[in-house]
UniProtKB/TrEMBL annotation:
This is EamA family transporter. Residues 7-130, 142-282 form the EamA domain. It is found in: Membrane. PANTHER family: AMINO-ACID METABOLITE EFFLUX PUMP-RELATED (PTHR32322:SF9), INNER MEMBRANE TRANSPORTER (PTHR32322). It comes from the Bacteria. Belongs to the EamA transporter family. It comes from Amycolatopsis speibonae. It is a multi-pass membrane protein.
Amino acid sequence: MPARDRLLALLVVVLWGCNFLAIHATLGQFPPVFAGGLRFAVIAIPTILFVPWPKVKIRHLLGYGLGFGTGQFAFLFIAMDTGMPTGLASLVLQASAPFTVLLGAVFLRERVSGRQLAGILLAVAGMATIAWQQAGNAALLPVILTLLGALSWAFGNLSTRKAAPESPLNFVLWMSVVPPLPMFALSLVMEGPAEIGHSLSTLGTPTGLIGLGGLAYVVVFGTIVGSGIWTSLMRRNPAGVVAPFSLLVPVVGLSVAFLVLDERPSPVEIIAAAVVIGGVLFGSTKRRAREPDFLAEAETPQPTGVR
């Protein structure tokens, strides 16, 4: 993975780590599923009017929109609204990295080298330690919902790899057309018109303005900028190389939650976060000599689509 791509991956890490604080602010004003639909609707309308079609197969766009967009953020927003701490959410969601590597090996037949596997296992061990330390702060249901969001993200990553869009940014923007309708429909059923109407009628209050600011950050930096760069990286590099960088997001998320929300990590969690960084760096650096593959590619031609 080139040094330039590593720096871009780290930029996405910072943007997505701060994204959880913005989501926290957004959920202070809007009900969770409606907030998710609103986030994508703000992007979808100008996309349809002004952005060229990304020239990808419909099934890959739908897969990315339903996985990365609808599934991930519906589960994540509901989890955070039902008690998932901001820092812990940023951590558990990064289970998408090992999910992506596993799914990439199974469905895309991507190679997983010994170095990559060792780095991922080291990073996951650090992540699991942090999760164990903070498990007492969250009920089981929010944790499960966040893990389902991570799995949805992983499936979205596979669709990105298969789509291989010529314009990653256009692909990300058009992905935003998929989530609004199913999320708004789900919001009407789960949250009701009264709660939705109240969130819209109180936008002029201090809480409403903070919520709008959080929504603006999520749309511009979390979705357009962050996801656009991420999609470009997934197109140029194997999923198993790019995905482990997402394990660094909870380091930023936990730090921001500590500084702004006073969610204080323990010394064990700080050490574990350093283990996560070490694992990602070890797994993503180029190996000097050829290593045996744990999951070798089949000798048959590569599949043309995810089934």
